[in-house]
Amino acid sequence: MAKQERAIRTRRACLVAAAEIFNECGYEAATIAAIIDRAQLTRGALYFHFTSKEELARGVLAEAVTTEGLVPQSLKLQEWADIALLLAHRLPREPLLSASIRLSVDSKARGMFGTRWPDWIELVGKVLLEAKERGELLPHVDPADTARLFVGAWTGVQLVSEVMPEGRDLSREISRLLELILPNIAVPGVLARLDTSPFRAERLLGADRSTAVS
């Protein structure tokens, strides 16, 4: 059991180090040597888990779609908003998530590995479809179209906020994006009950970890 746990930790350390280097240098300029140095592992330890930079990139992308911290809600639209807010809170703090976007917008890496955007669209689309079936969406709203456009908008906001000289806070920016979009898709009675605060994700993650400890 101890060996297995150590192997899991080592594999994770390899992925986090690779993600940090991909974030800093881009995929093409990243080297195995830099990743090994960042992970503070031997070459043998890294190659036990990943035989190439390509495998490391695929491993990073495999971690991209996550709903950590998501808690079932009485309103499916609240869950949809929570997915967006949780990712906004976590992405600047978790190299694996930010590197998955860096790889996705890198034309060479995208050509080699694809992206996880279709998976995100499918995930949020399913939540929106449930919201539609429950009568939470306005009649004209198409869940699939909304999911696709929202994932594009979310990604665009993230990329722009990252390079703005004043350093826009991503949680606040996504909170504002939700405030602009929700009145156009949610029925009024549901809209009034939704929480899109930029601090909501932090509260959800705190509650989730408190439950795990108890």
TrEMBL record:
PANTHER family: HTH-TYPE TRANSCRIPTIONAL REPRESSOR NEMR (PTHR47506:SF6), TRANSCRIPTIONAL REGULATORY PROTEIN (PTHR47506)
Entries under InterPro entries matching the protein: ArpA-like, DNA-bd_HTH_TetR-type_CS, Homeodomain-like_sf, HTH_TetR, Tet_transcr_reg_TetR-rel_C_sf
DNA-binding segment(s): 31-50
Xref: Gene3D superfamilies: Tetracycline Repressor, domain 2 (1.10.357.10)
Organism: Streptomyces sirii
Protein name (record): ScbR family autoregulator-binding transcription factor
Boundaries of every HTH tetR-type domain copy: 8-68
Pfam families found in the cross-reference section: TetR_N
Keyword Transcription: yes
